[in-house]
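A.,

Following up on our hallway conversation. Structure tokens first:
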């Protein structure tokens, strides 16, 4: 079972239905007006993963800037 979003042609209401994948494109009755003329929408979703995002800049892809040595990167060692 999956959650699908639909939009009613009659009243423009957007609604969700839990359906099997086989029934995803079957006519869906609008809970607002009872119309059965609707279309399935492409849904947005969010994904949360542990760690760095694939879109973020990781240290593996950032250029390395070498500075002086020492306890704090060379700033305090003259």
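Then the amino acids I'd put at each of the 78 positions:
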């Amino acid at each position: 079972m999956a959650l699908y979003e639909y939009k009613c042609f009659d009243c423009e209401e957007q609604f969700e239905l839990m359906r099997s994948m086989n029934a995803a494109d079957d006519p869906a009755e609008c809970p607002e007006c009872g119309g059965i003329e609707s279309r399935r929408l492409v849904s947005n979703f969010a994904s949360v993963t542990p760690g760095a995002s694939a879109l973020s800049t990781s240290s593996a892809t950032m250029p390395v800037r070498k500075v002086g040595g020492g306890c704090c990167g060379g700033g305090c060692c003259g």
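Residues 2-40 form one domain. Curious whether your intuition agrees with the design.

B.
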